[in-house]
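I have been asked to look over a protein record a colleague put together. What it holds is a sequence and that sequence's fold in token form. Please read both lines and tell me whether the tokens look consistent with the sequence. I do not need a full report, just your reasoning and any doubts. This is what I was given:
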Amino acid sequence: MAPRTAPTGISLAVLGERARARIGDDSLLLFEDKRWTVSALADRANRLADGLRRAGLRPGDRAVVCMANCTEVGVSYNAVWRAGGVVAPVLFLLSEPELRHVLTDSGARLVITTPEFLSKVLAAATGVPTVAAVVLADATGQGAGAAPAGDGAEGAGRVPPVLDFAELEAGDEAPLVDVHSTELAALLYTGGTTGRAKGVMLTHDALSAAAWAAHVSREQDHPDHSVRQVGMSPLPLSHVYGLTIGVMGLHAPQPSTSILMRWFDPVGFLTLVGQHGVQTSALVPSMVQMLLQVPVEEYDTASLHKIVSGSAPLPREISLQWARRLPHVALAEGYGCTEVAAIATATPGSAVRLGSVGKPATGIEVRVQLSDGAEAATGEDGEICLRGPSLMTGYWNAPEETARTLHDGWLHTGDVGHLDVDGYLYVVDRIKDVIIRNGFNIYPRDIEDALLTHPDVVGCGVVGRPDAAHGEEAVAFVQLAPGATVPAADLVAYARERISAVKYPREIRIVDALPLTGVLKTDRKALRALLND
């Protein structure tokens, strides 16, 4: 079936109303043994929108949402959009200073959270003049419990009052505030692992376009609309990848079932696949690696036919191991970044090419540019640049950074890659992570892929350290399989056999576990800090 034309020029709130009219009573969200129809969730969002307005949220105001995955996250997003506001999702793992930076920089009006994060949220919000209130939701079914009221007094030490989510949701529905589709819909903070987090501005049009591109890709996997689609979402809804996958549901042409995990665990994931006949899911590479560390062959995965991996490069050895152990499940890579609402490329159907992140997604142009500004030839490495309707409008309060990243109509990603003759994109590494030894470029991913072929290595992260003789040296941090004991010198020799003399790591450090960011990427900032230990 040919994809329908993407809807344009409408806000996400209006898009949600159309989805409700089309599939509202038949599409289901399953979360921890509870079943919700899209209509029931929309009813909650519509009532909450009125409550948020009464709590002080005005059109254009930012509402920070700090929760683990739960139904209240989606309800909050849709309520904020219906009230004409802007969602600012944050990962619940943020530290108090990091959260305070987001609240201050965004000028947040409200913060929506759950009891387990309330003390951190209140500490971060204390004295932030724009925060009118904190909204406390019960996302566990155990009751939110008593909450400190906050003094509400003006001044540097003002603690914002705490309002009950359920009470705000208990009122009447109110007409939506239909903002223009070019207005801001989401403000997502990124770059915290390399410096001060920057707010990425995404409009309603941008999020809708990215979600449409994801929808078209899924349509290629499910051309038969007579079969009910069943997907699973273990990704944090606070991350742009999870947010866009969630918005994708607003484009669904027919009823489907979505399963939401509070957080990912491999056994829980595989159990849910068998229980509900899950067909597809989007993961990040560390989740794929976790799945391969359990006996996946012992679980019922007959219904599963495709996993999409994104957010970080997928190691070659992991792809090969997946193909050996789960040959009936296509493992396809995609590519994107927050600045393009997560979706830049996708692998059509099951046409997987090892090492490739697929072809440009619907509406996206991909250009590989050399350092002199010329376009790279086929197969030639250069900076990956993107253009399309899902592009950010810029960084919040950061015009200089915006100008460096967005110019001539293109987003300059800072990623190195190349295109093959058929237009498939291959991502090599981040420009900032390239290690230069004796004038030669060393890509950390080349070393990581080589070491991950060792049977006792389950994780690897490579960073550069200054070296007086060579400029930089590559240092590999390696996580071994449980019970494995391999001397670091043996791993150096193993790498040397597989990588050129210029590139192999002269130093390998064994660690109990690789540090990961909140969205389960290798935390290179933390690895660089370990260089001084």
